[in-house]
Amino acid sequence: MTEEQADQILKELEIIRKLKLAEMLEKGFSQSQLAQILGVSQPTVSRMAPKMSAKKR
Fold first, then answer.
1. What pLDDT does 57 receive?
2. What number of CA atoms fall less than 13 Å from residue 45's CA on the CB side?
3. In terms of Cα–Cα distance, which of 27, 21, 32 is closest to 55?
4. What residues make up the domain containing 39?
5. Which residue in 7, 5, 56, 10 sits closest to 22, CA to CA?
6. Where are the beta strands (DSSP E) in the chain?
7. Secondary structure of the chain: what % helix, strand, coil (to 5)?
8. pLDDT tens per residue, range 2-50
9. Which residue, of 14, 18, 31, 33, has the fewest CB within 10 Å?
10. 3-state secondary structure of 29
């Protein structure tokens, strides 16, 4: 695997993680729950969440 291929896979995984976060927020999961599930901190979820909710409006 080349470095370019690895970078593309990482980008795709980040997109998948953000899509899953949006889906779970809509289902009513708390930011703390999502942080634990995704293996990130709650502030990271918080930073991601407003970007997505702003797009929905």
1. 42
2. 20
3. 21
4. 3-56
5. 56
6. none
7. 80, 0, 20
8. 999 999 999 999 888 888 888 898 999 999 998 898 788 999 888 887 6
9. 14
10. coil
Nearest-CA neighbor of 35 among 15, 16, 13, 20? 20
The rounded distance, in Å, linking the Cα atoms of 33 and 19 is: 16
Tally Cβ neighbours within 10 Å of residue 27.
7
Q: How many domains is the chain partitioned into structurally?
A: 1
With helix as H, strand as E and coil as C, how does the chain read?
CCHHHHHHHHHHHHHHHHHHHHHHHHCCCCHHHHHHHHCCCHHHHHHHHHHHHHHHC
Residue 38: which of 54, 49, 51 has the closest Cα?
49
CATH number at residue 47: 1.10.10
